[in-house]
Amino acid sequence: MSTNQTESWGSRVGLILAMAGNAVGLGNFLRFPVQAVNNGGGAFIIPYLVCFLLMGIPLLWIEWSMGRFGGRSNNHSTPFILDSMSKKAFWKYFGVFGIFTNIAVASYYCYIESWTMSYVWHSLIGTFDGMTQVQVADFFSKYVDIDKSLTGIPYEAVVFYVLCLLLNTYILSRGLAGVEKAAKIGIPMLLIFGGFLAFRGLTLGTSGASAEVPGASAWDGLNFLWTPQYSSLSDPKVWLAAAGQIFFTLSVGMGTIHCYAAYVKSKDDVALNAVSAGFTNEFVEVVLGSSIVIPIAAGYLGLDWVKENAGFGMAFQTMPFLFEKWGPILSVVAGVMWFGLLFFAGITSSLAMGTPWMGFMRDEFGWGRLKGAWSFGGIVLLLGLPTVIFFEHGVFDEYDYWAGTVSLVVFALAESILFAWIFGIDKGWRELLSGSDLQVPTVYKFIIKYITPLMLLLVFLGALFTPIGNDWTGAFQSIFSGGGWTLDNASIFKTIANSGLHQQLAAATDPAEVVRLKDRLFYTNFARILLCLTFFALALLVYLASVRRMRTSTPSAGLRNTNP
After folding, report:
1. Which class for 133: exposed (0-12), middle (13-18), buried (19 or more C-beta within 10 A)?
2. Which backbone phi and psi does 476 adopt, to 5 degrees?
3. What structural domains does the chain harbor?
4. Residue 174 CB-density burial (10 A; 0-12 exposed, 13-18 middle, 19+ buried)
5. Where would I find the H helices in 324-406?
């Protein structure tokens, strides 16, 4: 175990921007608008903001406090940050999620990030000039099919993925200084690009209406998102969707915040830092994120089209076509800005994903920045190539579900219990307020201890027992009437059993479809095996590190730090 303070942030501004960059990611622009549309527009906003205040902000405070506490004893990764807060040795294995999640998510997140790099290039060279909407959508489908090439670059998706990963690795090899510099460049550029596109979306009005869609209006999209619908407050589905979005938007439950916070000074104001990063993220997501894709798409294609076609792929399959309507010069500018802001949002997040692994290997095995960064890049490359090569077989989706969804909830639930109930809310509260100029409302002491863990438990149980059709009201009515509770294929239990795929296989009659479904089943299980092997390999490293600590420490130094 390292006994010296390894690195520190160069400035508070750099730290805040790096933390904001960690939180502000692709989900702000790609996932939030889709979630809002699919959950009733304005019906989503109120539950979303409530979840932000009752779950998002408390989790930010928990993770910042835990990270700084662990950093005092020179722990810069979640296994031993959690270990330092309890007398029970098993907590460090919950901390494995804080390394595993980042490696697994980075392996496919960098792939999405590479799409944005590629699309910046294609926007510059005019690839989308003259393409119809169908052709633009088809371009993306062929892009992710590595056997095809529309631009003469063999295996283009693989090439851009490797280039993107190399860039991430190089910046990480520069240490915190490299991450901080990237954030100081990336976040301002993101805000500038986003501000321009949002202004265009807000001023588009009805100017995009056509003979095909005479009623198209950008204002319809904005009104849909910003008109509150109080009936949503009684819909469990909307609440679960809102709570789920908090994980994606704030990067909580991953371990990156712990790692970043472990490098702050012992009396730095973590309460204010957490709030600053959180509200910066919310501004980007709620203001910029809701003012680009939906209004622009509604302004040209109509609100009904947006409601029917809202999805992750709109950013790549629809926006280049709409930008072409702005003329030969402005379309290039808009394309570069749109995919450029997505790139900056992506890379500031993916850089954060490398720091837990690097901090762990430096603390426990004495690895330097170069060795830590390039080993991270190598692991991500090996784990991520299947998401690129077998994208159409669902490997990408499996990674996203287990590492980017389920793992986040499990870890967040565990850390909230540890902080409030094992470490103790009184000690945790003192840790949060230590060095703070921010007057944290005392009510949050109650929220952190009771409300936040309860909400996390409900999110986890909701994922385990998702009712058929995600119809929670109907499920409760059924169980009270004696009809029982039927699980949806999207529930964790049904997902583990591959119930949906097995049902499709049983119903399939076309031989080609049978082959496709069998391939999908094979690669689904293949992806899960890879993820499990990665998790257990990391758990083994944590075990070896703990043995190493016991062998190299004196009897007094080997005791866990359980003081606040």
Report:
1. middle
2. -65, -40
3. 12-464+498-552 (1.10.4160)
4. middle
5. 328-365, 369-389, 395-401
Which alpha helices (H) appear in 204-327, and where do they start and end?
218-226, 236-250, 256-261, 270-282, 293-301, 303-309, 314-317, 319-323
| Contact yes or no for 531/399 (Cβ under 8 A) | yes
Give CA–CA dist 151/148, Å, rounded: 9
Nearest to 345 by CA among 14, 141, 117, 64: 117
The crossing angle, in degrees rounded to 10, of helices 236-250 and 42-51 is: 60
Return the sign of the alpha-carbon dihedral for residues 297, 300, 302, 308. Answer: negative
Instruction: Examine the pLDDT at 151 and tell me if it is beyond 80.
Output: no
List beta partners, residue 487: 467
Taking the C-alpha atoms of residue 254 and residue 23, their distance in angstroms, rounded to an integer, is 11
CA distance 69 to 75: 9
pLDDT single digits (tens) 391-445:
999 999 999 999 998 999 999 999 999 999 999 999 999 999 999 988 899 999 9
* Alpha-carbon span 255 to 74, nearest angstrom: 16
Which residues pair with residue 439 across a beta bridge? Answer: none
The pLDDT value recorded for residue 150 is: 63
What whole-number distance in Å separates Cα of residue 412 and Cα of residue 424?
16
- Residues of 236-272 as b/e, b for ≥16 C-beta within 10 angstroms? bbbbbbbbbbbbbbbbbbbbbbbbbbbbbeeebbbbb
Q: Is the pTM of this model over 0.90?
A: yes
In single-letter form, the type of residue at position 297 comes to A
Q: Which residue in this structure is represented by tokens 């094979």?
A: 522
- Phi/psi of residue 537, each to 5°? -65, -40
When pLDDT is cut at 50, 70 and 90, the band that residue 67 belongs to is very high
Report residue 149's pLDDT band, with 50, 70 and 90 as the boundaries.
low
